Amino acid sequence: xxxxxxxxxxxxxxxxxxxxxxxxxxxxxxxxxxxxxxxxxxxxxxxxxxxxxxxxxxxxxxxxxxxxxxxxxxxxxxxxxxxxxxxxxxxxxxxxxxxxxxxxxxxxxxxxxxxxxxxxxxxxxxxxxxxxxxxxxxxxxxxxxxxxxxxxxxxxxxxxxxxxxxxxxxxxxxxxxxxxxxxxxxxxxxxxxxxxxxxxxxxxxxxxxxxxxxxxxxxxxxxxxxxxxxxxxxxxxxxxxxxxxxxxxxxxxxxxxxxxxxxxxxxxxxxxxxxxxxxxxxxxxxxxxxxxxxxxxxxxxxxxxxxxxxxxxxxxxxxxxxxxxxxxxxxxxxxxxxxxxxxxxxxxxxxxxxxxxxxxxxxxxxxxxxxxxxxxxxxxxxxxxxxxxxxxxxxxxxxxxxxxxxxxxxxxxxxxxxxxxxxxxxxxxxxxxxxxxxxxxxxxxxxxxxxxxxxxxxxxxxxxxxxxxxxxxxxxxxxxxxxxxxxxxxxxxxxxxxxxxxxxxxxxxxxxxxxxxxxxxxxxxxxxxxxxxxxxxxxxxxxxxxxxxxxxxxxxxxxxxxxxxxxxxxxxxxxxxxxxxxxxxxxxxxxxxxxxxxxxxxxxxxxxxxxxxxxxxxxxxxxxxxxxxxxxxxxxxxxxxxxxxxxxxxxxxxxxxxxxxxxxxxxxxxxxxxxxxxxxxx
Length: 682
Hints:
Keywords: Disulfide bond, EGF-like domain, Repeat, Signal. One of its GO terms (cellular component) is extracellular region. Residues 76-144 form the Apple domain. It comes from Chromera velia CCMP2878. The protein is mainly beta. The protein folds into 7 domains: 11-148, Hepatocyte Growth Factor (3-Layer(bba) Sandwich); 149-186, Laminin, CATH 2.10.25; 243-386, Jelly Rolls (Sandwich), CATH 2.60.120.380; 395-460, no CATH class; 463-532, Complement Module, domain 1, CATH 2.10.70.10; 535-605, Ribbon (Complement Module, domain 1), CATH 2.10.70.10; 608-681, Complement Module, domain 1 (Ribbon). The chain contains 5 helices and 57 strands. The strands form 20 sheets. A 5-stranded antiparallel beta sheet has the order 5-9-7-8-6, with helices on one face. The longest helix has 10 residues, at 18-27.
């Protein structure tokens, strides 16, 4: 089935479905009907008109249902629906829904039609109908009214509005454009009097596409277009007023005169009949508060007290938002203004966002020049806030009311007693809105990987180059909890009797673990030794009848801290006293010192029996008396004899010994072979 000559279409191409074919017809001005054949590629043919009869040109009867044909606009078809009732005509051999719709259009009484793909049956209906489901059918009204505007089938200018009508459409240029709807040109409201703007007389007008922008002058003027008294981006430049601001703690002076003053009387009704000039100042624009910032309590002092004011002035002040009289003054008097007692001053409280009109008038017709000074004083009402510029800031960092990471310092005893033993492990930085935290050097942020804000969970890192304990000393940590991590502090300390010697200068032997990066820290490269001091006190000696081991200092020079000796007695002697002595450091001594303890080391001998030796005539005996106590000779004693000059040994034994009897344990002078020595003169 086709609408026109199948062999000579307007255009022929392939498309995947009937919708694509219809869209191509809609885009082609000469196309009115289209036919799409569900063959291998999806053959679409565009036809010029609908005057020729529809024809099925090839294929089997069943192939006809693979054809879809329709007019350029056919969105009103309802596929899968069939109309029943009030049948006014039936055509069993219609080949398409398009032909069936055309038959309905030709029949004056027809309002609806139904076409069955399965049978080719076309039925025409008047009005009293019922719609039922039928997968093989298509139904629609007599005429599909198209909406050229919504479907884009119009030639309106892109900057024009399209209005659909019955069977057609109209067009008109949008606001900001001028033309007939087919052609639309942007108008310049700023320069074309035919299209006036509503900018304030002092505002700058800037033309934009289809519109314009108004902006009050950047300096000395404020945009009151939104009627809030606040200079902000919501203003549109349609109401600009001249004003100035006075910052906290500053004074702004304005010179003018009332010679030709035309300011009308204000709500204060003060000096209403006098020539007056109006001066405006404000607290009308930022800086805006952020976070927990607050506006200060602000007061103003307005005065004409100046040597340049040359007439008797009177002042009244009103606000702009609701025209309330805020104060009046005629004369300050000499106490108020010594340079101009007839000057006038007004004090008032400021309100954020407010504008103030100061009316400076003469007195009894006086006029002249004046200088109006406006001073501003700001105070933060909350003691926790500090005035910074024009705002009151809440410094969480300085007040310590932040969440930046901290840890307990167990070494700070006084802080522990006061209940606040913590130290910061993160840096707190105050901002206008709040504060930020960042882990200090050598503290690693463990919170960020867990989704926390930065600087809330900062953990110390392990220290490299851990120091070792010195021999005869200790490492003393200031905080027993933190010993090998960031900010740990330790000191080399020696035991009593030893002095500290370090490889590098360390005051009092102290050193800290310091950060080398955000994730690393290290102890300084230092080592220490504890050197023994010379030992004082009672130096030990070998007891009589015994030995001391070692018999001399191990270093060959001095006995020092840590040296020790042991005592033992020779055969025949029994020991009385400590068997071992050590040189010990003196606790608390300054400078360091060590001592041998007081002691008594005695080897007690066995009294010797028998005939003791006697010195020869003309000679001496060594020892001359018992060495132990000068009274009793003891086992093991040995006595030698010698002759004095001019005597010489004439004979006899040179020595005599007191020997121990191992059987009895007693001691006796050995007489075996002993001959008393004699001395003679040559």
